[in-house]
Here is the input.
Amino acid sequence: MMDIPGLYNYWIVIVLMMTGFYVVIARGNLVKKIVGLNIFQTSVFILYITMGKVEGGTAPIVVEGADVIYSNPLPHVLILTAIVVGIATTALGLALIVRIKEAYGTVEEDEIFAKDESA
Amino acid sequence: MSGDNAILLAILIPLVGAVLIALTGRQPNLREAMTLGTAGLLFIVVLTLVPEVSGGGRPQATLIEMLPGLPLAFEVEPLGMLFGLVASGLWIVNSVYSIGYMRANNEQNQTRFYVCFAIAISSTMGIAFAGNMMTLFVFYEVLTLSTYPLVTHKGNEDAQRGGRTYLGILLSTSIGLQLLAILWTWQVAGTLDFTAGGILSGKASGPVVGILLLLYMYGIGKAALMPLHRWLPAAMVAPTPVSALLHAVAVVKAGVFTVMKVAVYIFGLDLLRDTGHGQWLAYIAAATILIASLVAMTKNNLKARLAYSTISQLGYVVLGAALANDWSVIGGSMQIAMHAMGKITLFFCAGAIYTATHKTEISEMTGLGRVMPFTFGAFLIGALSVIGLPPLGGSWSKWYLMLGAAEASQVVMIAVLMVSSLLNVAYLIPIVARGFFLPAPQSTPQPVSVGAAAAPRPRIQEAPLFCVAPLCMTALGCVLLFFFATPLYRLLEPIVAP
Amino acid sequence: MIAAHLPVLQIVVPLVAAPFCLLLRRGTWAWILSSIVCLAALVIAATLLSQVLESGPISYELGGWAPPWGIEYRVDVLNAFLLLIVSATGAIVLPYARRSVAHEIPESQHGGFYTALLLCFTGLLGVAITGDAFNLFVFLEISSLSSYVLIAMGRDRRALTAAFQYLVMGTIGATFIVIGIGLLYMATGTLNMADLGARLPAVGANRTVLAAFAFLTVGATLKLALFPLHFWLPNAYAYAPSVVTAFLAATATKVSIYILLRFFFTIFGPTFAAEDITLQRLVVPLAVIAVLVCSTVAIFQSNVKRMLAYSSIAQIGYMMIGIGFDTVTGLTAGIVHLFNHAATKGGLFLALGCVVLRIGSCQLDDLAGLGRRMPLTMFSFVLGGLSLIGVPLTAGFVSKWYLVQAAIEQDNWLVAVAILVGSLLAIIYVWRVVEVAYLRPAPEGTPAGGIEAPWSMLVPTWILIGASIYFGIETSLNVGVASAAARFLLGVAG
Here is the structure.
């Protein structure tokens, strides 16, 4: 009894997660690995944002006198932090790639490996 | 001085000695004085314990609670007293000998040598006086590690290989088997204190006893029970004083001493006898005795032959424990002292021969007896003691072991003991005979002198005094032990009749 | 007044100091500042531990927001112990860092180095102290990101690839943890770990909770390098600067193990792990394989630092065996080993750092003759090695004693034997180094005379090595606290 349309977001999450994961593992290009990592992390962001949604809820703003249903803001806040962490990770990863490129002259994993072996 | 302090002192003195030796390393004479002083002091301290122990007292001391319920604790009982006396007494003689040997052979790193030696003796004292299996194990391992630098003293390829075998077998058996056995005992009995009658009796039964016994016997690699004996010949790469004290006295005796302790105080003789597990151990011991003797006959290198002889003689002690009756245990325990005195004499002689002539192979020693009469005389006495002929100390331990075998109605074991003595004769006596009765090889053609009735008597050329004096003393010790065995017997009696 | 705010000061002091290190630019000043900070952190951690031992867990409400809504810092026996390990390592390593860093890292990067080190320090302390699951993730990322930077500062260019590999694996691990935390939040609506622990039994083991358990377990085991998720570790340890290797080896994996302990026992509770997912069947076999395989691999390494790195993975295996048993003795063994191994391995890596300072290499063959040329350093290495093997009178023995005992208690003879076989393998890899250092002569043309490391490096090395001997003889602190922590985690009185 899979409520496929209702769980649409979660399916997207899983597809993105697996795509990202696959890219990280399968690609030898370091930049592509970072891209994969980003996709992977993004899926988690969507997971968090999705779970905060309350059906029929509005933005969580307190309105004087009115008793409104609003979505849970906490996951959004949490994921803001996670996004920051993700950006830091990406920045650091890219910085490392630049240094690797300087040191090895390539960003392909197998070539780097070969250079280390021959060295 | 109370016994309790004496125990701690016995362990502490050599350690302090080690520090002093290290500090005085630059002045060899002062350093050697430190060694001798420490050795003498230690022996005196150990002696002060004797009256109390033989009077039935059990001095105790606790150092520190290492793990909950498992303190580093000491308790002197007769067996440990005996072992402590033997090791500390022979250390004095051996120190004198070491000085002669190391100087005459211009060995390197002498300070390290004496320091490690002192630490080894300290841990031997710890083993002798250990009050529980945990303490014994701790010092057992310290002994292994502190003797490693001694075994590899020469620092060459051979030493490295020998050291590897030495450490490999001793550490892996003790950690792999003995520690497991100890933990298991702890689990089953809830204590590791050495207790008269055994802590496992009534707690363990059936196959568990057998497995534990196997783990212990092979876990105590220092007892050199075949097939885990390889380390002992390997350790012969060490300088001779090391072989003499450690591999004839302290280390191997620590092994068989532990075997005795385990048999008497962990299992209890009744348990061993009633479950019948002593039986197969006796056969392993018997096989070790015979096979090692046979191997010894094939060795041309003197030290290697003595090493295999040691393995064989250690089998006697294990046999004594395995037969598990009063006579056999007394015999086995006496063997610790008797064999120590005999074998140290033999090793001293081997070292003296090497120092004086740089010969290591038996086939080269033809006619040497006339050049080194004292050395070969002492060798003869030591050999006869190891064989077990009166009037030498070794005869007593064999006698009691025979009695023990008879008590256990083990005709096979009586036969093994007799055959073994014959084998001992076969591999030890020819060395002396070759030395005294065969003419020395004529390396340079003698000038032909008409009328010379006989070749001139060869000049006596002994090793330095510091080498010869100790070996004469230990040879004398072998004789004395025959005539004064009664105090020894009295001391050991309470082990079997608490 | 200050006493009440100790939990937060533990974090804030190093966090605030970190950017100053960058501003100070001059390496020496940055070093002085970080040393002071680490010492202060040590004092705070020690005070916290004594407070906890005296009067039970401390709860601190960050910003005055009451838990479970606000972030809570919660100090109990377990994490007070961990705070002590981390801050003590920091305080001991820093005096050492000066000479070693000056030798291995270019002058211009010193400010950055100490900044990253302090941030890493903050992150590790934060993970340990926080009572909030998401906050834990944030601190974990602070420590991870800064440790990638630290590793990348290694002299060898392979340090860069090692750091990158660690970055990818570490990020995957951390993201798994976030997913797990998210799923738990979905199931319970709370992020406070104690609160989670209280609410989860009511939710039961439904699919969301089980998925959360799986994600958290995999994420944490990735971070702590449990076999077979350990591939990032050997290179990272081998090519990082010496100081960093010692610091991370003593703290980072230990903190990750702490995370796992928290997840298993505080959040899911011992019964969940034992009943719904048989922890023993899951973790213990992997841990045993880790011990055997990685000890064997360590034997064949030609780089001593790499060898010790593999040994670390094996030692983590020991800890996981203890944790996997899920009994008081087992957990005590695991936690005690966590502490003992931190001291031992930290000391060993510091000793290697001394070697690198003097001969510029830690290839096994280059160590020939060092026993004579650097007697104090190499002797400390031997003692540390003995502790790795588990020789009596060293800390390693105490851990193995409890570990084997835990195995025997469960009648798990295979594991008991495996633990001892692991020790035997350790003899081999330790003794390879000893033989080369002591029995092989120095190569021709080496100048005679000692090249002993400077005191500023020897003293920290010997403090850690001395600790690994001391805690093998006088065990009331490490065993006492560990068994208290184990009882606390399992909810056993006493």
Summary: Chain A has one domain: 8-118.
